[in-house]
Structure formats: C-alpha cells, structure tokens
Amino acid sequence: MVWNKLTYTGWGRARSASGEVARPERQSTLARAVAETLAPAFGMRRSYGDVALNDGGKAYDITRLDRVLSFDAETGIVEVEAGMPIGDLGRAYASKGWIPPVMPGTGFATVGGCIANDVHGKNHHVKGSFGQHVTEITLVQSTKTRVITPRSGKLWKATVGGLGQTGVIAKAKIQLMPCKGDMMVLTERRISDLDDFLMAFDESKTDYTVGWIDATATGKHLGRGILEEGEITSGINKKGDGALEVPFNAPGWALSGPVVRVFNELYFRRVPTRGRTSVKPITDPFFPLDAIHNWNRLYGKRGFNQFQCVVPPERVDVLRKMLEKIGASHLASPLAVLKKMGPGRGGYMSFPMEGYTLAVDFPNREGSQELISELTDMAQDAGGRIYFAKDGVAEAAQVAGMYPDQGLWAETVNEADPSHALETDLVRRLNLRGKGA
C-alpha cells in the first residue's frame, strides 16, 4: 500500500490535519492494508469539522471504492462500496423507479459517510435517518472482515451513526424505495416569522420539507424565511449546461454583515408574495449547493464553522433565543436552515431526535467560535444535541449528556477497537470514547 503525506481539511476548512493517507482501489487491497495498519477512513470529507480528520496519524481515502456491486430490481436492494457518492446512487436509479429513501444536503457525501454519521434529509419526519434503511454493512476490523445486520445488536447500533469507530466501512446494502421518476414538484412560499414557520411545518403534508431562514432578521421579522415543500414526480429531466465553480477564496468583506443582510433581503424576495410552484430535476432541491463547485471558498482562506443542533419540540423558546442571539451578532452567513424532525434514528450516537433542527454557517472570524460555544450550551441546557458531522468547536463538557446511549456506544467501540486506532480528531477532542482502552 502506498502512503502519501498530505494536509487535508473538512468541508469547513477551519480545521486541518497532516498525515499519511492511502487510497485503496480494491476491496482486497483495503483488507490487506487494514490488516497491517488499522486507521480511520474518510470519503469526500463533506462533514464540516474534524470528524474525518486524523492529525499526525494515518487514514484511508476510500473514494476509489465507489462501485455498484449488485442490484435486485424486484426488491430494490442495492449493494455498493462505501466510497459511492449518494448523489450518484440517486441519479443512477431514480429514472429506473428507485431512490435512496434518505438523501442528505449534498450528493457528494459517500455511502460510508452517510452510515457513519447516520445522515438525515428533508423527509426525516417521514422516512427517518439513513441508517434505518441500511440492511447490511461490511466492516474491516484489523485482521478480520465482518458482515453485520440490524440483528447484530450492539455492534450495529454502534456502527450506524458511530463515526467510523467500529471498523472501516467497506461496503453496504441499502433498501431503496420506489419512486415515480427523477423530477420533483417544488412549492416555495414566504414565511413571515418563526411562529408562522412552526405552524407551516405542522400543517405541511409533503414528504420533503425544509426552510431557509434569514438568520440576520430581528424583531418582528425574527425567523422569517422561505418554506420549500416537494414531492417526487415523473417528467423529462432537462440537464443543465454544467455546474458553476468558485475559482478562488473570496475576500473577507464578501460575507460581511451588511453584505449578508442585503443578500438575505433579496433572497427572501426572490419568491413572489403569492408563492410559486415549479418542476425541477430531483438533484436541484436535494442538493442545491452542489451546482456550485467549491462553494466553501466563499468563506475565504480561514473557512467557516457550522452550528447545527436539534431541540425538543417543547423548547421552541430556546430556538427563539438562539435566533435572537445570532441576529444580534451580525456573524451569520446566508446559509441557515430550519427543519422539523421526527423520532427516527439508527444508532446509539445518531443525531436525529424529535424536534426542530437549526443549522447556521458562520465565517471563521473573531467572535464566531465564542457564539457557537454559547449556542451549544443553550442546546445542552434545553435537552437537545449538536450534530457531530458539522461540529468543529465544542468541548467535551458541552456534549456531556446530549447522547443518552454514549456509554453503550463507548463500551462497544472500545471492545471493537481496543487500541483506539480508529479515533479521529473529533472523537479525541470531545473525549467521546473515554480515556484508556
């Protein structure tokens, strides 16, 4: 196995790691390499912080393991290698009447990453989390390869949403769901404030529902935004001319407070007062930012951090206080999302829980990390939790108690990996597995 010294980052680029990285191209190569050197694996590194980083250590880049291994057209079960981007899987089968039941906000997330972070989508209130639709996982654990299923008990629950700590995820079987085609009917409408947003979520009858929220709004406009509701349909997919790209790091003033406020005002008003309905290829509403390659460069060389939490439905008061604090800070970027979540989750450390999830990007500038830390404390006090796939700021004490099953998870992963060889920077930073073997 060839190892190359690399410096790499998460998507937010606020944290980086340096170490030796290997890129196996075959399952047999991966198995031999892991038998010699057990190390964590990463895919496209679309998680924002340091959950995929291993500074000073070795890591496996599994993006070349991206093949479809089998597909049963009668049952809809597909087996893929862990490096397969979820968007490629969706595009390959939607026109054939099948689609992954859960799609995260980017199509560049790999299947292995979707399992390790137990990602959720715009239809979580209907279909739950990604791991709930996985039927089989092949793990490479040091000198052995192990196939696990939901009947594997603790090991399964420690693997789904388990941040890659039970072994290197090599391949998986996923139960796809039937769909009408590869188009989506998308309805957009303005929402005047947070109360209207919460009411709109409660009244929505569509499978795919998400809100863009103006995180700079204050006063009577606090929580205003645009609600998107979608349903998959059939139609003719007119392919675009190709994606745009951000060719260089944007200057610091590009996301200054005044610029963001003007942008958000224009973005809010792009949807007519009466709302609008359109038919789009499913990739447009599923992965809106994928059409702009390297959009993270808009935050400049210092990158950005995202805060994402979920709070119980009865604690919308905390959600309101968070938005007030964010609006007063003048630190938020235009990228802010509000969703209503159901109870579905696949593993011990899976992020989803019933309630409301808020996600806001902050340029990595003075005051932003302190703000994120305050918001994290608020989520903890409210009985909520933060999403490890997005975090690069929290401290161990702040996440204590957020995940009630953390003890069971730590016991299981420490048994699967007693040498702690699979730990990543985030797992160490938050001391998720505890000290020692």
From TrEMBL:
GO terms for molecular function: FAD binding; oxidoreductase activity, acting on the CH-OH group of donors, oxygen as acceptor. Residues 14-179 form the FAD-binding PCMH-type domain. Pfam families: FAD_binding_4. It comes from the Bacteria. PROSITE patterns: FAD_PCMH. InterPro entries: FAD-bd_PCMH, FAD-bd_PCMH-like_sf, FAD-bd_PCMH_sub2, FAD_lactone_oxidase-like, Oxid_FAD_bind_N. This is Decaprenylphospho-beta-D-ribofuranose 2-oxidase.
